[in-house]
TrEMBL record:
<dbReference type="GO" id="GO:0000160">
    <property type="term" value="P:phosphorelay signal transduction system"/>
</dbReference>
<dbReference type="Pfam" id="PF00072">
    <property type="entry name" value="Response_reg"/>
</dbReference>
<protein>
    <submittedName>
        <fullName>Response regulator</fullName>
    </submittedName>
</protein>
<dbReference type="InterPro" id="IPR050595">
    <property type="entry name" value="Bact_response_regulator"/>
</dbReference>
<dbReference type="InterPro" id="IPR011006">
    <property type="entry name" value="CheY-like_superfamily"/>
</dbReference>
<dbReference type="InterPro" id="IPR001789">
    <property type="entry name" value="Sig_transdc_resp-reg_receiver"/>
</dbReference>
<keyword id="KW-0597">Phosphoprotein</keyword>
Length: 129
């Protein structure tokens, strides 16, 4: 599958995927790599915060319902620690729309996708980085 993503720089965009379901995280990571992204995967909020600090992603797909540090908490931590980063945060959730919309905005997410996310939705987000 060819890379159809329009990236603003010569380097592949760095994308972090954070999901405690390793099958979902690894599948999304592989899909993003096929689309020309440099990807790291974390399976907890704490690991996501730690990897983000050194990897410096341009885009993070973050599950909200993580054990321990939730996706909401991890997003706030990343944004508070690195307020100058040009970062897009996308929440991934299985929760219903009405429950999520206000909470993700308050936590600093740019948008959210309901699981399972469709490739067209992911591509739209990739096109913005």
């Amino acid at each position: 599958m060819p890379d159809t993503t329009n990236h603003s720089s010569e380097q592949p965009p760095r994308v972090l995927v954070v999901d405690d379901n390793s099958d979902i995280a690894d599948a999304l990571g592989s899909l993003l790599e096929l689309h020309g992204c440099e990807v790291r995967v974390a399976h907890s909020g704490e690991a996501g915060v730690e990897i983000a600090a050194t990897f410096k992603p341009r885009l993070i797909f973050m599950d909200l319902g993580l054990p321990g540090m939730s996706g909401y908490q991890a997003a706030r931590e990343i944004l508070n620690t690195h307020p100058d980063w040009p970062l897009r945060l996308v929440a991934l959730t299985g929760y219903g729309e009405s429950v999520v919309q206000k909470k993700v905005a308050a936590a600093g997410f740019d948008t959210y996708l309901l699981k399972p996310a469709r490739m067209a939705q992911i591509q739209e987000i990739l096109d913005t980085i």
